[in-house]
Write a structure and sequence with these properties.
globular; Jelly Rolls; 3 domains; single chain; six-stranded antiparallel beta sheet; alpha+beta; 10 helices; Spore Coat Polysaccharide Biosynthesis Protein SpsA, Chain A; five-stranded mixed β-barrel
C-alpha cells in the first residue's frame, strides 16, 4: 500500500476575495462534481483517488488554520499532520514522513508518494502515481518524479531533463528552475518535462536525509524541533541533490488553478451564487457569496467575485495582479469553515473609547459542537434563529431552539451542540475581540444526552 502525502499550504492571495489566510484556494467549492453539487479542489482530488482505486492511505500535511476546513470537507477519511509553523515543502515532508515512521510505525521499505493537494487533472494522473510507486518498488532509482508533458514553453514551472529512456521511465540528467522562454523552448526540444511536484521514494530513504539534520526518538520530539529544519523546498534540498533520480511521464491534461483566469476556464456555470448576467455578456464569470444580488451587463472577459471579505471586478487577463495588492485590502478573514460548520462576519465596529463590537452568523452542523470555552475580554449574546441545540453555561445545560437568546458574561464557560442543523447570530462586545481570546476546557456531552 502507498502512503500518499498531500501537501496543503498557501495563504490565499491570488483568489481574493474568496480565499484568505483561513480559507486557501483548495477549499473553495466552485467545481462541479459528478452529482451536480459543487466541490473544492481538495475534495475533487480525494474523490479521484478513490475513483481510480489507488491503493493508498492519505495523510495531509497542513497547518492549524486549515485543519477545520479539512475535517469539514473530508471528515475522518484522512490523517492530518500539522506544521507547528509555516516553513517550506522540505520541512513539511520531513515532518510527515517522521509521523509515518515514528507515530504510525511504517517500515523503511514502505513506498511514500508526495503530491500537491489541488492539481486539476484527469484520472490518468493517479494511474501515473501507481507507475511511480512500482518504479520505487523495483529500485529503478532512489527518487522517482512525475514529469508533466509541456504544452508550451512556460516560465512558471521548473523542468526535468531526461538522460536515458528505459521501459516505463527515464533517468534524469538535470533540473532547470523556471527558465526564460527561449531557454524553455530549447528544453522542450530536448524532451524535458515540467516538474509536477510529485515525488515517490521509500520511507527509509527520506528518513536518512532527515537524520542528517538531526535524529529524534519520537514524532513529538520532531514537532518540538521543527524550527531547526532548514526552510527550503523539497526540490532544492532533496531532488536536485539526489544521485539516483528517475521520471515517469504523464501526458494528460493538468492545470494549476491558481488565478481567477485559469480557474474560470474550468467553472461549469457562468454564475455561481446570487447574480444575473445580461443576455449579451461574453466570457464573464460571477461568483457571489453575499446575500445581496449582483447584476452584470456590458462587461466581457471579466471576473466578478464577491464575499464578506470584499469585491473583485477585473479583466480576466489582469486578474493575477490581485496578489500584489491584497495585503492593502485584507483586515481579518470574514468567512471561515470550522470542524463544526462555518461562520460569516456580518459587521464589526470600533468606538471612540476603544470599545468594539463584532456580529457573526454561525451555522453549526447537526451533531457537532463548539468547544467548552471562556473569554477574558468579551461578552457574547447568542440569538438562535433556526434548529435546536444544547447550551452549556458554567456547567448548566439548557435546551435551545429558534427564538431563544443566551447572554454569556465575560469569564463564563460555555458551549453549544447542535441537535439539528443550528443557525445563530453571535454579537461580541468588549475591548479585545480576537480569536486568540479563548481558554478551552473538557466537557463530556455524553453525560447530558
Amino acid at each position: 500500500m502507498i502512503q500518499l502525502i498531500l501537501l496543503s499550504g498557501g495563504s490565499g492571495k491570488r483568489l481574493w476575495p474568496l480565499s484568505n489566510d483561513a480559507r486557501s484556494k483548495q477549499f473553495l467549492r466552485l467545481l462541479k462534481a459528478p452529482d451536480g453539487t459543487y466541490e473544492s479542489m481538495m475534495q475533487r482530488v480525494v474523490r479521484q483517488i478513490k475513483e481510480v482505486g489507488l491503493d493508498c492511505e492519505i495523510t495531509i500535511a497542513t497547518n492549524q488554520s486549515q485543519k477545520d476546513s479539512i475535517e469539514n470537507q473530508l471528515g475522518g477519511t484522512v490523517e492530518t499532520v500539522l506544521e507547528p509553523q509555516r516553513r517550506d515543502t522540505f520541512p513539511a515532508i520531513a515532518l510527515s514522513t517522521t509521523y509515518l515512521k515514528l507515530a504510525k510505525g511504517y517500515s523503511d521499505d514502505d513506498v511514500v508518494v508526495v503530491m500537491p493537494c489541488d492539481p486539476y487533472t484527469e484520472n490518468g494522473y493517479f494511474e501515473t502515481i501507481s507507475k511511480m510507486a512500482e518504479c520505487v518498488k523495483k529500485n529503478v532509482a532512489d527518487l522517482v518524479l512525475m514529469g508533466i508533458k509541456p504544452t508550451y514553453p512556460s516560465e512558471k514551472y521548473g523542468y526535468v531533463v531526461p538522460a536515458e529512456k528505459k521501459e516505463g521511465y527515464e533517468l534524469v540528467e538535470r533540473f532547470t528552475e523556471k527558465p526564460n522562454v527561449e531557454t524553455a523552448k530549447t528544453l522542450l526540444q530536448q524532451g524535458a518535462y515540467w516538474n509536477g511536484g510529485v515525488f515517490a521514494f521509500r520511507l527509509g530513504y527520506l528518513m536518512n536525509i532527515v537524520n542528517r539534520h538531526f535524529q529524534v526518538a519520537s514524532f513529538e520530539e520532531m514537532v518540538v524541533r521543527y524550527s531547526e529544519l532548514p526552510k527550503i523546498s523539497f526540490d532544492y534540498e532533496v531532488a536536485e541533490k539526489a544521485l539516483s533520480v528517475a521520471v515517469v511521464a504523464y501526458e494528460g491534461s493538468w492545470k494549476d488553478l491558481g488565478t481567477w483566469n485559469t480557474l474560470s476556464e474550468e467553472l461549469s456555470d457562468s454564475v455561481i451564487g446570487n447574480a444575473i448576467l445580461g443576455e449579451k455578456v461574453k466570457n464573464t464569470n460571477v461568483v457571489n457569496e453575499l446575500s445581496i444580488p449582483i447584476f452584470c451587463d456590458g462587461i466581457d472577459d471579466a471576473i466578478i467575485a464577491a464575499s464578506p471579505d470584499g469585491i473583485l471586478v477585473s479583466a480576466k487577463s489582469t486578474s493575477e495582479n490581485i496578489k500584489h495588492n491584497v495585503e492593502k485590502l485584507v483586515s481579518r478573514p470574514m468567512f471561515e469553515e470550522r470542524r463544526w460548520g462555518k461562520y460569516t462576519v456580518m459587521g464589526h465596529s470600533e468606538y471612540s473609547d476603544g470599545y468594539k463590537s463584532l456580529t457573526k452568523n454561525l451555522f453549526i452542523l447537526a451533531g457537532k459542537n463548539i468547544s467548552y470555552q471562556l473569554h477574558n475580554h468579551r461578552t457574547e449574546v447568542w440569538t438562535f434563529v433556526d434548529g435546536e441545540g444544547l447550551l452549556v453555561i458554567d456547567g448548566k445545560v439548557t435546551h435551545v431552539k429558534r427564538g431563544d437568546v443566551a447572554y454569556i458574561k465575560q469569564g463564563q464557560k460555555h458551549a453549544i451542540k447542535a441537535i439539528s442543523d443550528l443557525q445563530m447570530i453571535e454579537v461580541q462586545t468588549g475591548d479585545k475581540l480576537e480569536e486568540s481570546d479563548i481558554e478551552r476546557f473538557d466537557w463530556n456531552w455524553e453525560i447530558v444526552e
